[in-house]
Amino acid sequence: MRKLIPVVLLALAVAAGLVFWTGLDDRVARLAIGWQRDYQDALARALRALRGGEAGAVTTFLGICFAYGFLHALGPGHGKALIGAYGVATDVPMGRMAGLAAVTSLAQATVAVVLVYAGVWIFGGARERVEDASAGLEPFSVAAIALLGGILCWRGIRRLAAGRHRHGHGHAHSGSCGCGHAHVPDAEQVLAARSWREAAALVAGVALRPCTGALFLLILTWRLDLDAVGIAGVYAMGVGTAMVTGLAAIIAVGLRRGVHVSLPAPGRGSVLAGMVEIVLGGLVAILAFATALRLIQAPF
Amino acid sequence: MRCLGPVLSFLLSVLALARAEAHPHVFIDTGLTFRFDDEGRLGAVSVVWVFDDFSSMLMVEDMEMDKDGDGVLTDDEIARLTAMFSDWPEDFAGDLYLTHDGKPVALSGPLEIAVRYQQGRIAVTHIRALLDRLRPEDERIEVQVYDPTYYTFYDLAGTPEISGRDDCRIEIEKADIAAAQRKYGDELAKLTNDEIMEQGKYPDVGGDFADDMRLECAS
Fold first, then answer.
1. Whole-number pLDDT of residue A72
2. Residue of chain A whose alpha carbon sits nearest to that of B18
3. Which of A106-115, A195-204, B97-106 has the lowest mean pLDDT?
4. Percentage of residues in chain B with pLDDT exceeding 90?
């Protein structure tokens, strides 16, 4: 059974790699564009029904929003990438990771609502201005992602250093050095504070980049005097998105556990975990910093 | 170490997901008619754009029209829309691209613009005249309809029509959307924010997203 796990993981990784390295197939890409369009059409019909006060229009509308959130999240996106990377690199229980994924999706919906109603208040609901404001948030999202990558990387380095410390030079530091073991009683406290910071960075990294579709929907429902239904619709989208990001979280945690179980000898776990953290955190940070540099290069 | 391989390839594929995502927000069904003159030369192209439901609704609501929601616009509202679609920004080339033997064909601005609003969709018709008329027998004439910024996705609605000649037909070569999206993402990553926001630059992947039409005429 244990021998099977690496084989399954390898097959999964190869499949995922093939899909995402070679890019989606042209037929899939066309299908996705068709979906986007079908959704927009269905949404327009639902809004018309809502405006006309048709029976059952609210349920239909919320259903369409949920489906959109779900389908849209199936495509490539920064949220799943980040949650997947964090889930693989960090020792977070599956339930908590899935909960965190749900929080990021709902926070993203909240950011869209706040952004549009701030836009209504400040710019009178001009659509271009709201889009610009949304683009203005992106550097903050990227900064949060870079921070998370940096934290992961740093933790990996510390873990490797700690492992070497214990196995290599343990005897040399027995009495003279006061460092190391004194920290143990605080470990849980440190862990809690650390994971709170990481969770905040994760949520900010995902949420500060709201989806254009949600922004447009909110502007429309505001124009049509359907504010409450529109806000409910955007949260329905968020719940749909949470289904997919939650799945990404579960797969990521499952993958990490699978690798852990299939390790040949005890003790290598922390070395591997450290290396995964460094590599993943480093990649996340490099990608984020590269994007951040592009975003903040302003004319002076 | 043998476990590191799958983990690394998984995380790389996860990160590959984060690449710039390109998808359009406005969908336009496009109808084209190629108009030949008495001498068999291509003189103009008629264009019909029918906007998708949602984008039409956004435009109508943005301009605070159809306040009673009956789906009918007043003459005044149609006139405002017509004025909007007649006033092309300087950097807007009409999203219609003709080439002869690979060289761009110069087109007039929009002529005879008309706007309708039917079943909740805005339809805009206009004509683009060729500044120099062309004979498809002499040169290879190719046509594409696309938005270089990929904000709008143009779908060909039916086969383009031909008027003024009956010995011509149109060969359509479908675009590889997935390849075009990848190229768009790669090109987008090379631009700085300054270039995008201040200079209005965008990844120019040309007509990679668009189907390729070729006019074939018997000579």
1. 76
2. A78
3. A195-204
4. 29
Among chain A residues, CA nearest to B119: A45
Alpha helices in chain B (DSSP H): 4-16, 53-62, 75-86, 177-190, 193-197
To the nearest whole Å, the CA of B201 is away from the closest chain A CA by 13
Q: Which two tokens stand for residue B6?
A: 């799958």
C-alpha distance from A98 to closest chain B C-alpha (Å): 17
Q: Is the pLDDT at B2 greater than 50, yes or no? A: no
Whether the CB-CB separation of A104 and A83 falls below 8 Å is answered with: yes
Contact predicate A271/A259, CB 8 Å: no
Q: Could B13 and A13 be called an inter-chain contact, meaning their C-beta atoms sit closer than 8 Å? A: yes
> In this predicted model, what pLDDT tens digit does every residue of A216-267 receive, in sequence order?
889 888 888 888 999 999 999 999 888 888 888 888 787 777 776 666 655 5
Q: What is the DSSP string of A108-140?
A: HHHHHHHHHHHHHHHHTT-HHHHHHHHHHHHHH
CA gyration radius, chain A: 23
**Do A41 and B53 make contact, defined as CB atoms within 8 angstroms?**
yes
ipTM at complex level? 0.71
Identity of the residue in A52, A84, A216 whose CB atom sits nearest the CB atom of B14: A84
User: For A13, which residue in chain B has the nearest alpha carbon?
Assistant: B10
